[in-house]
């Protein structure tokens, strides 16, 4: 038992030993429920674009020209950023030739949809950036033979010649890739060639550089996610250099990186690396290699089970305030947990880690461990500053060999980069974020808040604002009708739009929809930094000034609230608490109309109430004071309303449905319920007597008439009975019957015959005429039912003119005996036996015969 539990215990101890944020905070405190849910059918103000291409994943927004440039599979597009669906777009078809696709097939690739979903032997545009004032620069996979081209931005046409792209663009469209054009130089990071190792390179530059491959790889099976230039040279007191930061995941081998249950060869960790923009490589050592490359581990929540998915940077132009937001997917090897985490990292913390201790590769244990030796001067991996220039180090080529040797063997830092305040901002269960972007938004009160847009793997966008140490998800919006991954997100503050890139097309939607909030409470509860309540116009307005769109003659596509005459300071907004500012303002919206409901006593009735906010709690009040709880006195409180079961008169009254959220109470619906007594069913009444409504003297007359008629009927009945008796005595004596037995073909028969007659078979003599004439010579036979039907009886003789007993002929009928057999009672036409038969003797014979008769338990009635 302990042998099986030891790996799990060791895994837990290893996880707790890894430096990073505290894991003691309950995960439920990190989760956040989107306040509002907007399905695809309720979208408003959106625009769509879809051309004859797939996989619209590469986006470039140029605010100055109001153009959105899109790279897709086999095509490039130039769209109007104000309205991407206005039909004024330009298109470049850039397909791989059939010959190139054939060569791609020969390499073992195919054009079948893969899991992301992409196809391999097409031209996937992976890079699209502004090269200079007149041209754009783009690269595509081109059926595993990458090509790059400079495009005339105004004409938007391909050139007649292309550049080789094998050192600038990945072969595989599914490979992680990131790239930037900085001062004319191309900084890219990916796995370039077919079966090549990953690399960070600089090309189109007088000094082309790449990462080191020997004696060890600086990058180990890396998948790149994001890169950004941080202008650290601006206003730097030490004359620092600008730096490029790269975010990626790679296989790890450092001490404590993996658990006992996980193979270190497959365990992946998140990294952040940096290089100096002014790096020129070494003179003798690290020639054409980076001399400033350093990397560090990036930790968010659960170090062993997090995968970096997307990163965005905010305020990179001012390095003092630069920070990053990263989206991680949290999964375990047993697939017991799938969630997403969002963490924030400040640039100052990243810089502190790169200024800390180093790691070194230990050959004895074949893993990375903390370096405890001395560090040479100038500090390895640092950029050239004013201090170094004063000492004669004007470029990286002037650095000593000892420093370059140290950089070559110690690219990894010992300390990890932990998130701000040591914990994630958000932990979202059952959601897989695929891309995120953000923008700072200044509010009327002065503070600036970071607004993030998070795309999911099933086509939803979560709009969230960072508040203190957590995040508030303002709304979740289904922007794609069919579930598909959000591949890219771009924000345009000038157009007040968010552009979404997906496999099926491009979607444009407004950054805010403040008009959705109809009251002051709704507006402040949303805590949207773009929205504030205007007491003068009684409307929720956009707090930021939208740029003038007079440069375009096309109509404004998005529904934006104009507030040119509204002072921003007059708008009511409470970002921190989300419940203050409307106390003295009666703009709570028009009260809902009172609806009447009438129900019979004992019936059930549902009072609907729709809660627009997922964070609100439904509160029901009866007659304005009595609170109703679920299960109380026949009340059932649900998400759709209040169900009153088995209504009684005390349930009548006025019901109010309120939404309680963040300490505020808002009336949503009002009902007046009336419980009416059930109408009793009319009781059956006896027919009224004819004289019930008559006068007493007339009623007496009716009673006397009825009595006289009754007496007359009694006399007539007595007379008839007397006459019948006289005729019966004149014709003969009454017959008494005894049980008799007769042998029949196919079975036995039980007979009923007169006591004065004889048993069949004892004497065949008799008066034939009497046997034929009437009942004197007849016998009643009882025939037990058997499995085979009895033979049909002989036809009866013609009925006599008069029967001696005054009764009609007995009909033949079936009777049930013992619950499972039948006998046939019929009148026999046989002659009357001559000799008498004792009743006791005949009864004994019948019982003896019945004892040997086998009754059928389940007799088919149709066979009797």
Notable characteristics:
864 residues; mainly beta; Immunoglobulin-like; 10 helices; 13% helix
Summarize the entry for a quick read.
This protein is mainly beta and 864 residues long. The protein folds into 4 domains: 234 residues, YVTN repeat-like/Quinoprotein amine dehydrogenase (Methylamine Dehydrogenase, Chain H, 7 Propeller), CATH 2.130.10.10; 254 residues, Methylamine Dehydrogenase, Chain H, CATH 2.130.10; 83 residues, Immunoglobulins (Immunoglobulin-like, Sandwich), CATH 2.60.40; 115 residues, no CATH class.
Description:
13% of the residues lie in helices and 33% in strands. The chain contains 10 helices and 45 strands. The protein folds into 4 domains: 28-174 and 433-519, Methylamine Dehydrogenase, Chain H; 177-430, 7 Propeller (Methylamine Dehydrogenase, Chain H); 594-676, Immunoglobulin-like, CATH 2.60.40; 737-791 and 804-863, no CATH class. The longest helix has 36 residues, at 696-731. By secondary structure, the chain is mainly β. Strand 41 and strand 42 form a beta hairpin.
**CATH class category name of the largest domain:** Mainly Beta
The biggest sheet amounts to: 5 strands, mixed
Shape: elongated
Strand neighbour order, sheet with most strands: 1-27-26-25-24
């Amino acid at each position: 038992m302990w042998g099986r539990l030891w790996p799990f215990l060791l895994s837990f101890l290893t996880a707790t030993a890894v430096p990073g944020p505290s894991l003691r905070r309950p995960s439920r405190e990190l989760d956040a429920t989107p306040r509002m849910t907007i399905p695809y059918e309720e979208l408003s103000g959106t625009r769509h674009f879809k051309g004859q291409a797939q996989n619209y994943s590469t986006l470039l927004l140029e605010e100055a020209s109001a153009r959105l440039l899109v790279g897709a599979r086999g095509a490039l597009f130039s769209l109007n950023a104000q309205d991407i669906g206005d039909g004024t777009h330009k298109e470049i078809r850039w397909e791989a030739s059939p010959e190139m696709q054939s060569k791609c097939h020969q390499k073992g690739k195919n054009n079948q949809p893969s899991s992301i979903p992409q196809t391999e032997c097409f031209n996937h545009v992976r890079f699209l950036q502004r090269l200079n004032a007149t041209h754009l620069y783009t690269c595509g996979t081109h059926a595993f033979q990458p090509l790059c081209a400079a495009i005339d931005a105004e004409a938007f046409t391909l050139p007649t010649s292309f550049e080789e792209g094998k050192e600038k663009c990945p072969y595989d469209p599914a490979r992680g890739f990131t790239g930037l054009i900085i001062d004319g130089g191309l900084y890219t990071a990916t796995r370039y060639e077919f079966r090549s190792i990953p690399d960070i390179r600089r090309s189109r530059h007088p000094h082309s550089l790449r990462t080191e491959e020997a004696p060890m790889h600086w990058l180990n099976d890396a998948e790149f996610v994001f890169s950004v230039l941080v202008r650290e040279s601006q206003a730097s007191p030490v004359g620092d250099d600008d730096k490029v930061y790269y975010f990626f995941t790679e296989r790890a081998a450092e001490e404590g990186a993996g658990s006992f249950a996980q193979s270190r060869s497959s365990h992946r960790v998140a990294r952040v690396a940096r290089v100096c923009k002014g790096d020129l490589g070494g003179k003798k050592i690290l020639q054409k290699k980076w001399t400033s490359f350093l990397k560090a581990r990036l930790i968010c929540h659960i170090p062993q089970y997090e995968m970096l998915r997307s990163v965005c940077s905010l305020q990179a132009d001012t390095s003092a305030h630069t920070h990053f937001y990263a989206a991680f997917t949290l999964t375990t090897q047993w697939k017991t947990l799938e969630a997403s985490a969002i963490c924030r990292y400040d640039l100052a913390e990243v810089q502190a880690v790169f200024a800390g201790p180093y790691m070194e590769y230990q050959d004895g244990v074949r893993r990375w461990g903390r370096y405890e030796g001395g560090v040479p001067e100038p500090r390895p991996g640092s950029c050239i500053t004013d201090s170094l220039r004063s000492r004669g180090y004007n470029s990286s080529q002037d650095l000593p060999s000892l420093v370059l040797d140290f950089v070559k063997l110690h690219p990894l830092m010992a300390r990890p980069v932990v998130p701000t305040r040591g914990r994630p901002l958000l932990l979202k269960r059952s959601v897989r974020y695929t891309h995120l972007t953000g923008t700072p938004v200044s509010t009327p009160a002065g503070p600036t808040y970071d607004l993030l847009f998070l795309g999911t793997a099933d086509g939803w966008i979560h709009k969230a604002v960072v508040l203190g140490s957590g995040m508030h998800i303002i709304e979740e919006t289904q922007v794609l009708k069919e579930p598909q991954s959000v591949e890219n997100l771009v924000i345009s503050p000038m157009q007040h739009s968010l552009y979404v890139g997906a496999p099926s097309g491009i979607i444009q939607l407004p950054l805010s929809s403040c008009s959705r909030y109809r009251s002051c409470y709704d507006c402040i509860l949303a805590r949207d930094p773009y929205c504030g309540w205007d007491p003068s116009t009684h409307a929720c307005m956009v707090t930021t000034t939208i740029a003038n769109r007079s440069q375009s003659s096309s109509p404004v596509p998005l529904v934006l609230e104009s507030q040119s005459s509204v002072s921003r300071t007059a708008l009511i907004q409470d970002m921190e608490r989300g419940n203050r500012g409307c106390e003295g303002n009666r703009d709570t919206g028009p009260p809902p109309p009172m609806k009447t409901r009438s129900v019979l006593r004992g019936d059930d009735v549902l009072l609907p109430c729709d809660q627009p906010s997922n964070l609100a709690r439904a509160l029901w009040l009866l007659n304005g004071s009595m609170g109703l709880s679920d299960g109380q006195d026949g009340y059932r409180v649900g998400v759709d309303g209040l169900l009153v079961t088995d209504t009684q008169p005390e349930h009548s009254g006025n019901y109010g449905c309120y939404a309680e959220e963040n300490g505020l109470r808002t009336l949503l619906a009002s009902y007046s319920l009336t419980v009416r007594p059930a109408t009793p069913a009319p009781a059956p009444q006896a027919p009224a007597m004819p004289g019930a409504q008559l006068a007493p003297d007339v009623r007496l007359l009716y009673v006397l008439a009825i009595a006289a008629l009754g007496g007359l009927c009694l006399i007539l009945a007595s007379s008839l009975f007397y006459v019948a008796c006289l005729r019966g005595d004149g014709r003969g004596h009454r017959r008494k019957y005894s049980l008799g037995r007769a042998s029949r073909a196919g079975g036995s028969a039980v007979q009923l015959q007169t006591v004065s007659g004889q048993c069949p078979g004892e004497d065949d003599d008799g008066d034939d005429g009497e046997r034929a004439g009437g009942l004197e010579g007849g016998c009643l036979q009882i025939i037990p039912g058997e499995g085979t039907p009895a033979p049909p009886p002989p036809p009866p003789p013609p009925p006599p003119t008069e029967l001696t007993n005054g009764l009609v002929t007995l009909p033949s009928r079936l009777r049930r005996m013992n619950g499972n057999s039948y006998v046939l009672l019929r009148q026999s036409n046989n002659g009357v036996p001559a000799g008498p038969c004792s009743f006791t003797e005949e009864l004994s014979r019948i019982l003896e015969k019945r004892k040997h008769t086998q009754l059928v338990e389940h007799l088919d009635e149709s066979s009797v």
